[in-house]
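Chapter summary example.
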Amino acid sequence: MSGDSWINARQCKIIVAVITVIYVLYMGNLLFFKGRTVGLSYQYNWIPFETIRPLLLEREKYITEAWIKNLFGNIVLFIPLGVCIPVLFRKCRSFLKLTVIVILIIFEVELTQLVTRVGTFDVDDIILNTLGAWIGYVGLRILVHVERLRQPSI
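The structure predicted for these 154 residues follows.
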């Protein structure tokens, strides 16, 4: 059995598919329902690093909870995308294809938030969420590599 054959195993795909459904439901609730109300106006940021820059350079202006939620929450919550997508969709196992798919998914979420006025459209969220997916992808690739090294040579 090769080091990445487990990633193609039916049982693995079923487990990851179930986890993905739970993840999508959780994220849908978090992004569109939990504590969210429809705003009166559209709120958006199209300028890259406009909200990230102050979080990094003016840390003292933010309470710790808001700082962690806005910076790290946007990264950590999207780590599963970098794992689930390549496991479930073989064609999305390259870094470039994963990146394109993740950006499209996140852009769609942000656009939906803008149109429904639930949350805000923020290009910095796309950047941070994509970074989270990249972390998940790198973690998956490391896991596959380690598993490959553990396999006996014939």
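To summarize the output: The chain has a mean pLDDT of 91.
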